[in-house]
Design goal:
This protein is mostly beta strands. It has one helix spanning 10-22; strands at 35-36, 48-52, 55-64, 68-78, 93-100, 103-107, 110-114, 119-122, 128-131, 138-147, 149-150, 153-154.
């Protein structure tokens, strides 16, 4: 797997640090806070796009729901021989599903091939990531959230 640490700009490193600190990919700006989500349909043309050195993230929903806080759903597109950010961890649960392309999954220090149709589940604080070592863009869906309610009581 290619080490991209030396190729990341200081801006990209600062953005990544801020993302981890806020426990959600920042879909609009650092000043934005999650909003209360309601049932809706968001078209691809209306998704917010955040550009990174290694690809783009299309945010469809970002906010709190009756059962979650800081929920984010979107589609990431990683350029060949890149990653949006290195393997990382956060207190949220997260699902990633590859729609197109291939690469390498990282989960808790172990790597394995990543193929179209694969789904990764990362439990809270598990180290996870995906790297596109293919020659075409790798496109995947992200669903990430942190529980705020469970069986009628708040999770603190």
């Amino acid at each position: 797997m290619k080490n991209t640490t030396n190729t990341l700009s200081l801006t990209a490193v600062a953005i990544f640090a801020l993302m981890v600190a806020l426990t959600a990919a920042l879909p609009v700006s650092a000043a934005d806070k999650p909003t209360q989500l309601t049932s809706a349909i968001v078209s691809q043309k209306d998704a917010h796009i955040t550009h990174y050195e290694g690809g783009d993230f299309h945010t469809y929903f970002y906010g709190d729901t009756p059962l979650t806080k800081g929920a984010i759903t979107g589609v990431a597109v990683i350029k060949p021989n890149n990653e949006i950010h290195p393997a990382h961890q956060h207190p949220d649960e997260e699902y990633l599903m590859i729609l197109e392309g291939s690469g390498t999954w990282t989960l808790n220090g172990k790597s394995q091939p990543a193929h179209t149709g694969d789904i990764l589940f990362a439990a809270p604080n598990d180290v996870h990531g995906i790297y596109n070592n293919g020659d075409v863009p790798l496109k995947f869906v992200v669903v990430r959230y942190q529980a705020s309610r469970f069986s009628g009581f708040l999770v603190e």
